[in-house]
Design a protein that fits this description.
Blueprint: H1 2-23, E1 27-32, H2 40-58, E2 67-72, H3 80-89, E3 95-99, H4 103-113, E4 119-122, E5 132-137, H5 139-153, E6 158-163, H6 168-185, E7 190-195, H7 202-214, E8 219-223, H8 228-238, E9 241-246, E10 257-263, H9 265-277, E11 286-289, E12 296-298, H10 303-308, H11 311-326
Parallel strand pairs: 1-2, 1-3, 3-4, 4-5, 5-11, 6-7, 6-8, 8-9, 9-10
Antiparallel strand pairs: 10-12
Length: 332
């Protein structure tokens, strides 16, 4: 009788623990490698994740509520690895979601210490690690179309890309395909490549932009975070055009910014969060999305674009975008 009672208790415990496991709430940490309010990319990241969590929690009971924690790591990249390690060391987050091309290199050593931690990394690429899922935007296309309009608009045929730092995506995709786009528009186009050294120094960004303007460059693509504001200020003062990356930047300097190639970070961060909460994250897979899939685009209806860029150039851009969207052109 005692044995039957014991077995009954064990069975009940197993059933209870199984039920508890099913209703156990999930915990998500968002690691922002910067400051949310200073970066449209990180703002979109957080908005998308929040929307997915809030939607899930509306239909979940109290035991299944998703917990969300957001950490702003600041602009000092030297501290990101340490802060990300500390976040992982808490060992209470089912997944850490973040966005930056440099993050796969920071995450891999952390996984040696905390092999059970999962990461979803946006705007980054890493394939084959079963603890990591990455989603990158087709920056072959994004860089090419940005270079193409830069080449069409430049009168000196001299352009520049001012980057925060060098990293694989910058060196292997963004810069070379910006050059390809510019040269497709005008074979005489040349592109100067300059480095700020960080993602926040607006004074250094302005100094570099002043220097390239003096060298005759009349179109600049800044990809340098907070330092981009210094580049914009210099461009306005020197009457140099700016091509903009990642979000609609026309309002930052009407008449100076000639293009905005955008990525749908909010929509994608929502998608990957829902995918994770549904248990469908493709771990180890590096996904790429672009114009055809609706996650990279080029703003054509902003009044500042229409007022600044001549109609014949706008028509050429429309034709290029239509061909890419239809899948008739592949840029790689």
């Amino acid at each position: 009788m005692k044995k039957i009672l014991f077995l009954t208790m064990v069975l009940a415990a197993l059933i209870f623990s199984g039920c508890a496991k099913k209703t156990e709430h999930k915990s998500i940490a968002v690691f922002v490698p910067g400051i949310i309010d200073d970066s449209p990319v990180y703002n979109m990241l957080v908005q998308g994740i929040k929307a997915a969590v809030e939607e899930t929690n509306k239909s979940a009971d109290s035991a299944s509520q998703v917990e969300l924690f957001i950490m702003e790591a600041g602009t000092n990249q030297a501290e990101w690895g340490q802060k990300l390690t500390a976040l992982s060391a808490e060992q209470k987050y089912d997944v850490i979601i973040s966005s930056n091309p440099s993050l796969p290199d920071l995450v891999e050593p952390i996984l040696h210490q905390f092999p059970n931690q999962k990461f979803i990394l946006m705007d980054a690429t890493k394939e084959g690690n079963q603890n990591i899922h990455t989603v990158c935007y087709n920056q072959y296309e994004q860089s090419y179309i940005t270079g193409y309009i830069g080449g069409l608009m430049s009168k000196s045929h001299k352009l520049a890309l001012i980057a925060a730092q060098e990293y694989p995506v910058m060196n292997e995709i963004i810069f070379p395909y910006f050059v390809k786009g510019a040269q497709a528009a005008n074979a005489s186009s040349t592109v100067d490549f300059r480095i700020v050294g960080n993602w926040y120094d607006a004074t250094k960004g302005a100094e570099i932009a002043d220097a390239v303007a003096k060298a005759g460059i009349d179109v600049i693509l800044p990809i340098c975070g907070g330092a981009s504001q210094g580049v914009i200020t210099s461009a306005v003062n020197n009457k140099v055009y700016i091509t903009w990356f990642d979000d609609n930047g026309f309002a930052k300097a009407p008449g100076t910014i000639i293009s905005s190639s955008v990525m749908e970070q909010k929509k994608m961060s929502y998608n990957v969060t829902k995918e994770f909460l549904d248990g469908n994250t493709p771990w180890g897979v590096a996904k790429m999305v672009g114009i055809k899939e609706g996650f990279v685009d080029f703003v054509q209806d902003d009044p500042n674009y229409i007022n600044t860029v001549p109609a014949e150039i706008r028509e050429k851009m429309k034709n290029l975008l239509d061909e890419l969207r239809a899948g008739n052109i592949e840029i790689k």
